Amino acid sequence: MKWELPPGYAVGALRYPVPTRLTVAGIMNYVYENDYSVLARLKVPADAKPGTVPIRASARWLACTDKICVPEQGEFSTDLAIGKVQPDFQEQFDAWRKLLPRPLATPANFEVSGQKLRIAIPLPRNVEVKEPYVFAAVDGPVDYAAEQQFRRKGDRLIAGLPRRTGEPAQFAGVLSLGTAPGSSSRRCAERCQRAVA
Questions:
Q1: Sign of the torsion angle spanned by Cα atoms 139, 143, 148, 150
Q2: N- to C-terminal Cα separation, the chain
Q3: Which of 18, 41, 117, 182 is the most exposed place for a label (fewest CB within 10 A)?
Q4: H or E stretch including 71?
């Protein structure tokens, strides 16, 4: 995403809902099968005057079917009104925000152990885990398509992720626990710090 913003304005990191997985030609892809929104915080200068400001962006992404993924691109623009948000618009953003992964209260820890990246994720033992999967936030350290292994150790969920390249000093990702259809209440994000699991 490349932004064109008025002076003094800034856009934060893009924030995505929890994806699903799709393997195409032996390559694992993180995809979205239904309607979704990518959110980002817009920083408005303290001295911004009421009115409208032009927000422009160019974007590139992959569009996938079950057989192929192809690169696409597009231009986006809006004239943003500076001032009070309308209640009905606020409700829509609240609905989109509910689909974002939630951060853990306590950071997870990880270590490199042979050909695996082991992550100790704080998770109370009474939280149901159906089909866990860790979506890596950064390309490189883990093999997306390889089978992930999980086990419980008290109030921690231990994930074993097959390594791909390098020995990361940091790791971040999203943990999906597997949910009943229509439920998003058991999704959480993890920010991992290097330590022994």
A1: negative
A2: 35
A3: 182
A4: strand 69-82
pTM of the model as a whole: 0.79
Q: How far apart are CA 118 and CA 115, in angstroms?
A: 10
Q: How far apart are CA 145 and CA 59, in angstroms?
A: 26
* CA–CA separation, 49 and 45 (whole Å): 9
Paired with 178 in beta bridges are none
β-bridge partners, 155: none
Residues β-bridged to residue 58: 2, 75
The pLDDT confidence band at residue 37, using thresholds 50, 70 and 90, is: very high
Mean pLDDT of 13-20: 91
Which phi and psi (to 5°) does residue 91 adopt?
-60, -40
- Mean pLDDT, residues 101-106 taken together: 86
Cβ atoms of residues 31 and 22 within 8 Å: yes
Burial class of residue 122, CB neighbours in 10 A (0-12, 13-18, 19+): middle
Distances (CA, A) of 172 to 25, 103, 111, 129, 183: 26, 11, 13, 20, 24
- SS3 (DSSP) at 97: helix
Which residue from 125, 124, 112 is spatially nearest to 197, judged by alpha carbons? 112
Q: What's the whole-number average pLDDT of the chain?
A: 85
